[in-house]
Each structure stands twice: as structure tokens, then as C-alpha cells.
Amino acid sequence: MNKYIKSLILASLLSTVIFAIPTFAADTPYCGNGVTDTEYGEECDDGNFWNRDGCSAYCELEDMTPPEVSSVSIEEGATGVSSLTNRFTITFSEAVDATTINEYTVQLKQYTYEFPINYDLDDSGTTLVITTDEDLFGEAEHAILVKNVKDVAGNQMTNLFSRYFTVGEGIDHTAPTVKAKPEGGNYTVTQSVTLTPYIDERTYSDEYIDEGAKIYYTTTGAIPTKNSNIYSNAFSISNNTTLRYFSVDTKGNTSEIVTQVYNFSCGERANAAEVSSYPSCTIQECLYGFKLTNGVCILSSSSEDDYTVNAATAPLLGSDTPMTVSTKPALYITPQHHGVIPRPIIFKDLIRGTTINFERDTSITTSDGRAFDGYIQPPLSLYSKNYPINFGYTFKSIFEFSPIEDEELTFDPPYEITVPFTERFDETEQVTVFTYNPETEEYTQYRPDWVWVNDMDQEVTIKADKTNVFFVAQEGKNYNAIVFEDTVNHWARNYIEALYRKGIVKGRDQGVYAPNDILTRAEFTKIALAAIGEEVDPYENVESAPFKDVALYAWYVPYIKRAKEIGLINGYPHGEFKPDQAINKAEAIAVLMRAFGFDLYSAGGRDDSYTDVLTDQWYFPAVNFAIKNKLIDGIRLPNDTIMYDSFGPARDITRGEMAKLAIKTMELAEELED
Fold it and tell me: Which regions of 516-599 does DSSP assign to beta strands (E)?
């Protein structure tokens, strides 16, 4: 090597040594574009570690790259994976932040089902092991999903990582789970119980029913064994029962024994004071103001003499101390009062929960200006069937406050009447009170400043200076709105909706009543029982068919059985009932008249002009009674014209005609009872 070349090498070495000596920055450290000073505040020109500019010892490139999944221990699209596989390893391209590993960022799923998994990230932060304690679904595609995981520098994954694989035939070592419907609890009517085995407790949809599993059960409280009853069909439970069961699948997997306890008691009977013990649950006595009719308590319109005997007389002497009346059916204002109550009175009706407050020296006058004397009764609850139902509000309660003589009274100062919320009350809706004009059939909103709602005590207070009928209402669709879309313009609409409100009919489908369809004999039997308030358990386990053509599994068998027991139906001479046959007008009338026990011969002789109603026919007394009392019309033509010379006793009765017949018959029964 010549002398010149050696000099260049030496100069180069000296240059390297000289420029390798660190130069510390006096102010802000700088490591070049995209480079971070980590320790000494070294100034570097561009952060290039490989051009020997002296930065490599103290500067490193800033991490701006998000992490990625480098590999997963199971291949993409793998098939035949064992259902017992419960461990998977996920490797990341760099260390990740352990706090970002959770059930939202790393998931193991089968369709929508997400497996519960455990997470174990190693010390390097690059290897994550996930495990699950559950078996995978056999013959189903699964997925491992990774998203939004961050590295230690805070960079977050920008793309969703997915790894799909398919599990082969499952290795079943999981015991089935049996679902009882309904489960144990407190009930008032017989329950039809079904037991369904599912492959496990993760899902109860029909696609996961364990078809081959057997269910062994007892209803005596005894521990079931494989010698116990084997479930095959729904069974009825009508008394206090302890049900125990377990299941065994085709692989021999056996579930734990499950216990369901069913308790039964008599449900609440409206206006009943005493009810017999379960299971008969018949009303023995009604509350004061109600009478027992056909097994139900209905409002009793007591005579004036009853009120006279039992009424409380208003005090004659003045006082500021209120007088409370709570056990009397009426308040008597004597002629000596000269229309003035000299003492505050709190008039409570314990049956209906209403309270009327009269101030001291309240003056009561009649519509012609004279001082009132007579009997004032508590507010009477009214039925909505007496009022138009196509109204945009839901009536929560309808009540009338009036004297027994039913005349309009004026009170000065005004009285206050408080009524409790009903079960239909909606706390989220505003309360509005209406009055009603029967001549114009119009509702008028009552003074809002005279209405107070007490949410805490769940009651509404109304201030008034006259007797009236008050409608406590809330906005909302209920029986005051359109019930059935196909009856809006039908002649029988009001009868149909009145029958619906009583819970006697429900329609053929959602919003569909089918008023022109015919009725079967079985359908009408159920309606007739409901009309007289006869309660029937639809799940009753009937052991003997009431007629030879009534199948024990048919929905209507409990109704036909009960109707036959109480003499409502007789059937045909050869022991048949023909439940699915259409019922004609004469048959329907005869059944309903018999149900209400009317004195058919009280109608007297005929005075109609129907040429097809024959006096020598079996149906004549019932049909004549119905015609005389205007319970049903003659043949109605498609254009709604009624024929007054043709009744059509053998014509099939329509659902619309039935509705009118039922409502008019119930109204007649109430009138005759009064």
C-alpha cells in the first residue's frame, strides 16, 4: 500500500473518532425527523442509524405501527376440528397492551353465540393463549375474532382479524337440560305442563332440542329414577304439586334432578266477600251492594226501602269536626235540614274505595231551586257498554254520583270526590276527566283546574258543584278505540265490541273478528257459558267424553262437559253433539234462553209476522220469547235490509248476529233482576 493511500485511511479513521464524540444539546433534544431521544438528549441530523452520524447509541425510531395478528394455532378453513378443543394460541407482531385484551377485543364465537373465554398473555406481550370451559358446537363453523387491540405504544389495530374453522361431529359428554313450561309458581287455574330436553343450557330454541333424550319424572315429590314415569305429552297439574325430573340422552349423559313446586289457590273473585276453598273456588257470599247471580257477584240495585232502613242521617247540629260515614249505603238529608249540611261529612264507600267530602254548611238544591231532602248514595260504577266506544281515550273508571231519586242537584260550596286508580291505570299518561251528554252522544272535557292526581296514593280527586257521571280517562288504544278492523262499518260493531270488552270473544285473528262467518256448536257453547259467568278451566283433564263424538284432546271438551253438567245442552238422540257443525239461529236462541233461565211462556202468544216460525216446532217458546224481547232480528240481507216476514230459524247464525243476541240477552237478564 502506498503512502498516499495510508494517509487517506488514517484521516478517515481520525475523522470517525472525532465525529463519534457526543455533542449534548443545550436546549430541546432533537433526534431528527421521526426519531425520539430516549436518554441523553443527543442531537442527530436525521435519525439514520446506519450512516454513522453518532445517533445510534442514544436515539430510536418512534413506534407508529399498529399491531397485527401474526399467527393462530389453528389454520384458516380447518375442518373436522374436535369439539373438545378448548385452547387456542394467538401471536401478535409486537408486544400488546394487556389491558386491551378482553371479551370485546378477542372473541370465540359460533354464529351469534359467544363462548366465555379465559385470557393468558405471556411476559413478552406477544403470545396470547385463550381457553374455554365449554365444548364447541358439533358440525358448525366457529370463528376467532380479534379487533381494537393496542400495542404498548398505544397504536390500535385498524382491521378486524378473523380465523374461521369448522368443528366435526361433536363428542357429546354434556347432559341435556330440561325446561319446564310453565315453571313452578303460584297459580289459580290448572296448568298444562310441558317438559322439553335441550342439548345444554346455552340455548332453548327448537333447533337445539335433544330429540333422543328421555325425561323421567314424578309428581309426588319422590326422587325420580329410571323406573319413574317417562314423559311423552303435556300433563295437567291442578293441585299443590312437587314435580321432580331428570333427563338421559342417547349417549348416557344424565342431568341433575330438578324440582318445580306448583301451588294453587283461588284467584280473586270480583266483589266476592267469601269464596270456597280451592279447587271449587265458588263464591259463597258477595260484598255489600252486590248479589250472587249465576255464580258471579253483580251490582245490586237495592230498593229505596233498603236505603231508608240502613242509611246514615246527616247531623242537624253545626260543628267543625268532620263526621265520617263508612258502613252505610246512603246519606239521609232530612226535611229539617232545609237543604243544608251543618257539619263536614266524609262519606266513604268501602266497597269501591271512593270518598266524598262535604264542607260545613254545604247547601244542596234541586234543579227547580228547592231545598233538597232525600237520600244520597255513594258513586255507582258504570259499565262502558252504555256509552259510545269509538273514542280516543281509555276509560279507567266511570262512576255516577246522584241521589236515589236520580235528579240533578247543586252543591254550594262544591264537594270533592276521590276515586282510586284501577289496574288499567298507566302512570306515564296524563289523566283527563270527561262528562257525557246522552242526547248528543258527545263527551266534554271537565275543568282541568278541578281535577287533581295523587300518584303517591294512586287516586284522582274531582271537585264538582253538581251531580254527574264522570269518566276518568287516559289517552291510549284500548276498548275505546277500534278493536277489530273488519267491523268498523258493520251493523253489529257495537255489540261485537261490547262482547269483546266483557272478555267473551277474542276474534279469529289479530284485529279480525269475521262478523259474517258462521259459528260452530262448540264455539257457541263456550260463548254461552261465558255469558252467564260460568268459569271453565280450559286445561281440565277430562277423563270421560261427554258425547261420543267429542274427542278428549279437543280444545272444547271442558266447555261441552260443563255445559252438559248444568243442563245447558243435550245433544242429539244417538249420543252425539256434533261440535264442529254450524249452529243455526233456533238452536243458538234455545241454548242462550235456557242458560239464563228465562220464563219463556211469560212472553204469551205470538204477535209477529214471520211465516217460517211455526208454533208446533220444538224451538217456538224460545224463539217467540227472543222475538218478543227484540233480542234478534229476522233474516238480514247483504245490503243490511231486515226481512220482517222471514226469520230463518234453520239458517246458520253469524258471528255478528250472535254478538247482538248475547248482549241483548245479558241486558234483558239485568233488567229482569232489577
Answer: none
Instruction: From 562, 576, 394, 600, select the one nearest 477 (Cα to Cα).
Output: 394
Residue 294, domain member (yes or no): no
Mutual orientation of helices 655-673 and 585-596 as an angle, nearest 10°?
20
CB of 83 within 8 A of CB of 137?
yes
Between helix 585-596 and helix 620-628 the angle, nearest 10°, is: 80
The total of other beta-carbon atoms located within 10 Å of residue 324's CB is 12
Computed from CA positions of residues 100, 102, 104, 105, in that sequence, does the dihedral angle turn out positive or negative?
positive
Peptide bond into 279 cis (omega under 30): yes
If you count DSSP H runs as helices and E runs as strands, how many of each does the chain have, helices first? Answer: 8, 39
pTM attached to this predicted model: 0.36
* Residue at grid coordinates 293441585: 239
- Name the one residue in this structure whose C-alpha cell is 241483548: 664
Residue 132, pLDDT above cutoff 90: yes
Q: Which three cell numbers stand for residue 610?
A: 214471520
Strand residue runs (E) in 553-600: none
- Report whether pLDDT(101) > 70: yes
**Which residue type, as a one-letter code, is found at position 412?**
D
Residues paired with 292 in a beta bridge: 297
Number of alpha carbons in the 13 Å side-chain half-sphere of residue 505: 30
Q: Residue 499 — φ and ψ, nearest 5°?
A: -65, -35
CA 532 – CA 593 distance, rounded (Å) = 11
**DSSP per residue, 323-378:** EEE-S-S-EEE-GGGTTEE-S-EEEEETTTTEEEEE-TTEEEEETTSPBP-EEEPP
Domain count, the chain: 5
Residue 477 reports pLDDT greater than 70 = no
- Would you say residue 394 lies in a domain? yes
Report the percentage of the chain scoring pLDDT > 90: 35
- pLDDT tens digits along 511-528: 788 889 888 899 999 999
Q: Which residues have C-beta within 8 Å of that of residue 428, sequence separation ≥ 6?
A: none
Q: Is there a contact between 271 and 286 (Cβ–Cβ < 8 Å)?
A: yes
Rounded mean pLDDT, 645-663: 91
Range of the domain at 46: 22-62
332: domain CATH number is 2.60.220.30
- Could you tell me which residues are beta bridge partners of residue 469? 400
